[in-house]
Amino acid sequence: MATSSLILFNKPYGVQSQFRDDSNNDHTTLSQYFTDKSLRVAGRLDATSEGLLILTSDGRVNKAITHPPKANHGQKQGKTYLVQVEGIATPEQLIQLEKGVVLKDGKTLPAKVKQVAEIDLPIELWPRNPPIRERKNVPTSWLILTIYEGKNRQVRRMTAHVGLPCLRLIRWSVAGFELGSLGVGEFVRIHLNSERCQQLGITD
Fold first, then answer.
1. Which residues does the chain have with pLDDT short of 70?
2. What is the pLDDT of residues 143-200, one digit of tens each?
3. What pTM was estimated for this model as a whole?
4. Which terminus of the chain has fewer Cβ atoms in its 10 Å neighbourhood, N or C?
5. Given the residues 22, 26, 46, 58, the one annotated as active site
6. What is the maximum span of the chain, computed from C-alpha positions, in angstroms?
């Protein structure tokens, strides 16, 4: 098996998950951080979301991470997010998220979710610019949410559906790769051994 590699990038708030700016806004693009034109994004992240973005020039790696489970020999590639929401989640709201909620484009797959204190998040938070909007009399809380699909703006829509508007969204892990201690705007290249490739469903 040929050697494969990918890049783990801590995408800042306001950066688009693409190299060309084909919109009429002021968002920065990935071209400000990478010059390798062979790189492709394996799983987009909204400009207003932060955290782990994976890039690779290997089509097999891209397919293993971004395609539905059937394309990966039945292996589900989970994506875990740290979600700051408005309000404190009730047990009923958490159960709704776990079982799946019905959105305009269909019901979401069962997810994993737990509510945590900010101090128990797996990373030390960095200041966001601009800061989140806060209402003085409304508390906020954090969820750790893992999903197994990629509907458009899915996490934001899921939490809003159960009455927990999303204030801040940080992707922590994708397909077993974690953000770790990467600073905002930093990246690291990972070389995949044969065992890791097999775990991703890459067999040729």
1. 1-3, 22-26, 68-76, 203-204
2. 999 999 888 899 999 999 999 999 999 999 998 899 999 999 999 999 888 777 777 7
3. 0.91
4. C
5. 46
6. 57
The arrangement of secondary structure in 1-74+176-204, i.e. its CATH architecture, is 2-Layer Sandwich (3.30)
Beta carbons within 8 Å of 6's beta carbon, 6+ residues apart:
42, 54, 55, 56, 58, 61, 177, 189, 190, 192
CA dihedral sign, ordered 47, 53, 56, 61: negative
Domain 78-174 has CATH 3.30.70.1560: yes
The two structure tokens encoding residue 70: 């059937």
Domain ranges of the chain: 1-74+176-204, 78-174
- Tell me how far apart the terminal alpha carbons of the chain are, to the nearest angstrom: 6
Active site residue 46: yes
**What pLDDT, on the 0 to 100 scale, is given for residue 25?**
64
Fold: same for 1-74+176-204 and 78-174: yes
Identity of the amino acid at 78: G
The torsion region of residue 147 among left (phi > 0), alpha (psi -120 to 50) and beta comes to: beta
